[in-house]
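Question: does this match?
>
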Amino acid sequence: MPGCMGRPLIPVITLLLGGCGSSGFVMPDALESQVDPSVSFQQLLASPDSYQGKMVVVGGEVLKASTADGGTVLEVLQLPLDEGQRPARERTESQGRFLARQETFLDPAAVGDRARITIVGQVTGTRTGRLDEVEYRYPTLDIKHLHLWRLEDYAERARSGPWWGISGGVGIGGGTRTGGGISIGTGF
């Protein structure tokens, strides 16, 4: 029948495209237009007061979570974000630290130390605190949206992307039956 040749490909294409999706970071529409993507963490760290009131996207690893004045303050080791807004794996890529405040109570046990997060936050200025033996000037943010990354999200990233492979095998059955085969596969 004319026009039927492409129909068997529809399920295959659907499966391939479905595998490209991810359960990653989704920025709320209401905040997306407010974020200033031109502000880097280096700029924010160098001059936090210059960016007061700006909405930024930052992420990293939670070093400490504590409650204060009915809210929660997170001390975060900044890590660069990838194209999916996921923090880098390596702590050595950090450019510094920041403090992020959630106005409502966020149980520190729910966030947990070493959790990886991405935040959409409004820059509020700086706060000076002790970091070992030195005074450290932390950029401060009010959290408008918080995404907590699961360990599985990092495993998915390690497996994502195109791949290919070649495999083969030999089978020996009862009697005189033997067989073999080679397969070549690709994936997305």
